[in-house]
Amino acid sequence: MRRYLLSFALLSLQCEDAPVARDGSVAPSDVAHPLDVASAEDATAAEDAFVRTPAPACPAFVPRTAPRCGSAQARSGILAADAALDAKARRFDRGFHAIQALYTGVNSEAIANDDAAVARVERFLRDEDGWDLAASAGVAPSTLFQWTKVAGAYAGAGAVADSFRYAVLRDEGAACEEVDRARAHLHAALDGMHRAVAITGAPGVIARGYIRRDLPGGEDTVTVPLFDAAGRPLPAEKTNGTWRAPAASGPADYVWEDSCSRDMLIGWVLGMAAAWEVSRGDATVDPARLATLRDDARAIGRNLRRVNARGYDLEVHDADGRVTFHGYLNEAAVDRAYIPNFRANGQHAMMSLGIAAALARVADDPELDDWLHNDLIRGRDLPGIARDRVDLVDVGEATNFSNYNMAFTGAWLAGRYLCDDAAREAVRAGTLAGLYQTPGRPRQPAEMGQSFFDLVAVAAGARGTAWRDLDAAGLDAGAVARATATLREFPDAPFWERSRTNCDEAEIAARHCVGDDGTPIPLSATPGRGDSLVASVPVPMRIRPSSNFYWRSDPYRPNGSGSPRALLPGVDLRMAYWMGRYLRVSTPSR
User: Fold this and answer.
1) Which domain holds residue 531?
2) Which band of pLDDT confidence, cut at 50, 70 and 90, is reported for residue 559?
3) Mind listing the pLDDT tens digit for each residue in 225-236?
4) What is the band of 538 on the pLDDT scale with cuts at 50, 70, 90?
5) Are residues 308 and 394 in the same domain?
6) 350 Cβ contact list (under 8 Å, min separation 6)
7) Are 109 and 567 in contact (CB under 8 A)?
8) Is 111 helix (H, G, I), strand (E, B) or coil?
9) Do 322 and 457 reside in the same domain of the chain?
10) I need a labelling partner for 30 at 20 to 30 A (CA). Which of 56, 85, 388, 465 fits?
11) Quick one: pLDDT band at residue 587, thresholds 50, 70, 90?
12) Which band of pLDDT confidence, cut at 50, 70 and 90, is reported for residue 47?
């Protein structure tokens, strides 16, 4: 009960307006330094006594020898062969690159103009097996759709899918045409991720998202200058996203949205890390693109490493010089506020460890390694905070599942890219007992049917890293089975955003309903986040309301509205599916 009261208190802070100055910075608190100390003098004394030590070396990377393309080697990932699931994933891959990522290389959503466009997509994905919608439809896709913005959380997920897909096809000796196509998609994803940095024109600043203004959907986007004539940032009150013109050195056909938030940043970093991981030792991946990726990671990491006037780092800085609206990742912050004498935000600790570790690996930067090792791990014990306090994301029915998604993403990155064994073990403990399955508590992710969460737990339990395959002894076969079952039930492509009403008004009044497929759904008497209707048990994936990213949506929500011409990209399925295909159990020769 005490934990839930604390969690609800933190949730209320996230829902209230934090004390924010007009320049976008958080108003000063009683704390002069993020360490738990009695006074500023004690903090100074503690810092003076602290001796920095060298960061531990990462394991030596032993590259696999890729087989000859077309040699058709045995399947190697933890997802067993499943003809129906494999075919569904291929349909999503084809649709993603023929439509959603066609013009940018990364994820966006597309809205069909009319029923004729819907019919063309149905035929292309269900009846054909090509990758070129224009050739199939006889018209350019730009005449069939409008596109929404690219956003970091989902663009990064798509880049993960493309990275792992390329690695799997390469390492399994797939047909040469398939490997070459997958490599081209990886290159396009690398370009799309770099665009989010280049477009801002500011070192280490990354866009929340961007959109092409020469395509339907982006042509009427109105931009605001970064500064007024007197050099003051615009708008005066920092927002959660303002559209900006590209920097003079950036891509001219795009406009970008500023105020990159925690969830958008960790999405971009997730994609960057996966692209780096699969490209190690692969001379066929463009080295110039990888050098650009390294430079971007270094700049972003050093931006996060900056310490403000009150001693706080881990803030996402924007091109206007302010901290972004939801750009606070320090363990002493809750949402946008620094809390006096508080250094226990386990979600932020898990995310920050993952982001910092991933950026340090991609950047190959000694400064970032030193910051990660001496400040975040040794000096402030972020691994211990993540282990002991990450469960605060769970506030029962009122849980914000975006927080769960961010925490699991941080757990994946930290577990995969930390080179400190003790820190990684603390993250492992927090992932398994703090996030995935906390003993004695209801509504745990292990029961939710969220494949991404299942696979992060599998990797943690079996101690898989970027240098080490999964230990067979630690493999959670039950979690693999749950992840697979959810992916099998995932809607097929083309995935149109349909409304779903499992529970009508009479059933809601009775607190019990029967789902569209006959599944009994008991309803909770406690409302969900935003006073929403939620069930007492997870809703099976096969009858859940549509979502553009299920891993950040409430799996207990039985009803939801939709726009039937909105074509959802399925990057959530693609990321989890290819993650499962990529993760391998260690063999005696490895």
Assistant:
1) 495-568
2) very high
3) 999 999 999 999
4) very high
5) yes
6) 386, 390, 407, 410, 411, 414, 427, 430, 435
7) yes
8) strand
9) yes
10) 388
11) confident
12) low
What's the average model confidence in pLDDT over 543-571?
98
**3-class SS of residue 502:** coil
pTM beyond cutoff 0.85:
yes
Identity of the residue numbered 447: E
Is residue 358 in some structural domain? yes
Strand-pairing partners, residue 227, are: 233
Residue 115 CB neighbour total at 10 angstroms: 10
The Cα 269–Cα 536 span in angstroms is 34
Q: pLDDT tens digits for 171-203?
A: 999 999 999 999 999 999 999 999 999 999 999
Q: Return d(Cα 366, Cα 411) in angstroms, integer.
A: 23
User: Does residue 80 form part of some domain?
Assistant: no
**548 and 454 belong to one structural domain:** no
Task: Indicate whether 442 and 537 sit together in one domain.
Answer: no
What does pLDDT average to over the chain?
93
* CA proximity to 107, closest of 215, 192, 164, 179: 192
Q: Report d(CA 66, CA 87) in Å as an integer.
A: 24
pLDDT tens digits for range 85-143:
999 999 999 999 999 999 999 999 999 999 999 999 999 999 999 999 999 999 999 99
- 355 and 403 assigned to the same domain: yes
Are the beta carbons of 16 and 326 closer than 8 angstroms? no
Q: Which of 374, 464, 402 is nearest to 427 (CA)?
A: 464
Locate 269 and state its tokens: 């970093």
Distance CA(109)–CA(257), nearest Å, equals: 16
* Number of domains making up the chain: 2
Q: What was the pLDDT predicted at 262? A: 98
Q: Are residues 438 and 523 in the same domain?
A: no
> Same structural domain for residues 302 and 359?
yes
| 31: amino acid identity, one letter | V
For residue 561, give every residue at least 6 positions away whose Cβ sits within 8 Å of its Cβ, in sequence order, or none: 499, 545
Residues 294 and 419 in one domain: yes
Here the tokens at position 505 are 């008004």
Instruction: Tell me, yes or no, whether 122 lies in a domain.
Output: no
Give the single-character DSSP code of 180.
H
Task: Report d(CA 13, CA 339) in Å as an integer.
Answer: 10
Angle at 573 between CA 397 and CA 583, to 5 degrees: 105
| Residue position matching structure tokens 């799309």 | 192
Task: For tokens 């029961």, name the residue.
Answer: 447
Number of H helices, E strands in the chain: 18, 16
How far is it, in rounded angstroms, from Cα 301 to Cα 286? 23
Residues 6+ apart with CB under 8 A from 249: 198, 201
Q: Which of 302, 277, 208, 289 is closest to 582 using CA atoms?
A: 277
User: Considering the domain boundaries, does residue 7 fall inside one?
Assistant: yes
CA quadruple 415, 417, 421, 427: dihedral positive or negative?
negative
Provide the residue count of the chain. 590
Tally of CB atoms within 10 A around 287:
11
